[in-house]
Amino acid sequence: MLRAAAISALLAISSAHAGDKTNDAIAAAVFDYFDGQGERSAERLNRAFSAEHARMIGVLKDDGETVVRTWEMEDTIANWSKGDPITDERTGKIVSMNVVDDRLAVVLFDSNGRFLDALTLAKVGEDWKIMSKVFIVQE
């Protein structure tokens, strides 16, 4: 698990650009993903992801073995949108954000202290979209 001090230091670095239009738009897409998942909102999830093109890859343990699994986001969004909203308290934090050429970004995201996501976003037209999500389970 990432240490709290390391997370705080990285958040301080990424928040140095708070209020920047590009960083704010990227953060909005990331939180559409996180909050949309909790709300079971297909609208927010589709706003966050380039659903028909995006993929999710997880490095997981299965019977003690490390396995890599891949999901199509179009199917995943349909699954995440089912059921009642999550009522348990959830916290999501941007750990770091790197933007290149104002068209490509990589965001490390702490999802509820359970998962660490590496999100790759690209600017599609005027919108920032998550193109891929790679995650690990925090231990």
TrEMBL record:
Alphabetically ordered keywords of this record: Signal
Membrane-spanning residues: none
InterPro entries listed in its UniProt record: FrzH/put_lumazine-bd, NTF2-like_dom_sf
Name of protein: Nuclear transport factor 2 family protein
Domain of life: Bacteria
SUPFAM superfamilies: NTF2-like
Residues in the signal sequence: 1-18
